[in-house]
# Entry
Amino acid sequence: MTAPQTTVRLRRVTLAHAVRTLSGDDLRVMLQLVLGACPSTGRTWTSVARLAEDNELLPERADLALRRLVEGSFVSLWTRRGELRCYEFGALVLRTEVTPANLPVEPVP
# Structure
């Protein structure tokens, strides 16, 4: 049995802005987050260590890239659980209309 294909759609204008303004490391981290994003919520769970390993970066560089993505409003920190963080995409990810009923945790106040 083949797993269903998940499609995440990106907004062209926001993607073009990211390509023009972000560094190479920041873009790689952003695209890694997109790969794990839920098409309904625009959220993705990860850790700095996982992003660093997946992108062959030092953890400090991965953390800096995440901070830049938050500062640039490409993503926002939704919540944390230990080392795991949940990021939510802003205008970049075009969400589907159906939201899963089992959304985990509440946003960071």
